[in-house]
Amino acid sequence: xxxxxxxxxxxxxxxxxYAGYSPERINPGDKEHRVTNIKKVTxxxxxxxxxxxxxxxxxxxTVGTHKASSIxxxxxxxxxxxxxxDLNIALINELAMIFNKMGIDTEAVLQAAGSKWNFLPFRxxxxxxxxxxxxPYYLTHKAQTIGYHxxxxxxxxxxxxxxxxxxxxxxxxxxxxxxxxxxxxxxxVMGLTFKENCPxxxxxxxxxxxxxxxxxxxxxDVYDPWxxxxxxxxxxxxxxxxxxxxxxxxxxxxxxxxxxxxALGASGxxxxxxxxxxxxxxxxxxPAHESDIRL
Length: 295
Fold this sequence. Notes:
alpha/beta
């Protein structure tokens, strides 16, 4: 923005006007970690402005701030916070694919590994939202402009972006094993938001599942009590149903871990599928023996 401001205003940066920066740190749907009790990174275009910005944020941030040495450092910190999470989830997603082929329950493995004090508690799944699935591209784009081709970061992105197609392939295999005719089958996708217990649809990767199911000519209903029907239609051309009817579906995919879905329990969710139908639990909402497939 600074070059634009200079050009339009005729003012000189760091003489006539200055810049402050503090990256967003907010977790939608999180009632514990809110703006005031998440430590804020601050920065300014000069040491004096950095102090000014830091004092300003300390007026509302009760847990304090971290004053970075430059705006670039603050920006880089924001990008790698999300890149690190993206790569950790990609690793677990790849492990889940391996364990699925080996017939090993991924959640059981993660619980066992989690008994070690320094094992990081990541879980496999879809990686959407406006930060984790987006920010790594800012870093990789910049890296490429300066002549470096990042490998690990882009590999993680590719893997996470392919999870929707992987989920559908697993569902279709399970349906075929149960001799369910795939073309024309009815599948209920439970959840559309990018994370549980919030209405945020930005960059949700559940849409990848919906589109991939359509490639098999499967009839898809999407149910999510958190979303605005108008927003779902505007953003993705999806008309969520108001309430699923019992016994209507050949398959159910638990795509988002909303509390409302957990409250249904195994019997409530199982009642939505026809006899012999497939329940795919992406979010470990159900006990292992209550679902037909888990990620």
